[in-house]
Amino acid sequence: EKGGYATFMEKEIHDQPHAVADTLLGRTDAEGRLVLDEMSISEEQLNAVDRITIVACGTAAYAGMVAKYAIEHWTRIPVEVALAHEFRYCDPIVNERTLVVSISQSGETMDTLMAVKHARELGAITVSVCNTHGSTIPRESDAVLYTHAGPEIAVASTKAFLAQITACYVLGLYLAQLRGGSYADDAQSVMKELGGVPAKIETLLGQMGRVKEIAKFMADTRSVLFLGRHVGYPIAMEGALKLKELAYIHAEGFAAGELKHGPIALIEPGQPVFVVVPSPMSEHGLHGKVVSNIQEIRARGARTLVIAEEGDEAVVPFADEVIRVPATSPLLAPLLTVVPLQVFALWLSTAKGLDVDQPRNLAKSVTVE
Ligand code: M6R
Question: Which residue range or ranges hold the SIS domain (predicted)?
Answer without folding.
Answer: 41-181, 214-359
